[in-house]
Amino acid sequence: MKTASTVIVVFLILIAAASWSMAEEKPAPTQAEMVTLKIRVLEANFGEIPRELASPLIMTATGREVRFQSGGKVKSKFDDETHDIGTRVVAKIDALGENKYRLKFEASLGNATLPEQEPETECFVQQKLTARIIVESGKMKRLPVSSHCWYEVTVGDPKLMHLDRGNGLDPQPTTEPSTSGR
């Protein structure tokens, strides 16, 4: 009889230990989700049709930093100094659940202009935007940077994001420039 009760007690202790051990385990980290990040940079003066300055479309996984660069460096015609031109994006997208994402990104556009009338002049312009936003999957978010320039940002399912001018999920037209402050 003692043997049977000892076996039962040991069995109950093992079950309790296993239950306690399982309760302390941390939940498995959420698996990375594939998403597409679309950033459009547009400009237009009041009443003009918007002109697209850049439109990178980047496929990435949530929880990881992604870098995109189109362009490079240009050397000054007067000295050895170099300047960034083109489009550069550094971004990280975190899934929040319920089709929402936290997007942290830095985008910069660089351009060189050489005025023909003034051969002794060169100009390098760089625009930089750093943003932290919450976006809903497939919904474009407009980020104005001036009265005539803005960014349109969309994060969504790569199977539904199209390579055309739309995002494939929300048939919103390109937004017009801001009329505030006039």
UniProtKB/TrEMBL annotation:
<feature type="compositionally biased region" description="Polar residues">
    <location>
        <begin position="172"/>
        <end position="182"/>
    </location>
</feature>
<feature type="signal peptide">
    <location>
        <begin position="1"/>
        <end position="23"/>
    </location>
</feature>
<protein>
    <submittedName>
        <fullName>Uncharacterized protein</fullName>
    </submittedName>
</protein>
<keyword id="KW-0732">Signal</keyword>
<feature type="region of interest" description="Disordered">
    <location>
        <begin position="162"/>
        <end position="182"/>
    </location>
</feature>
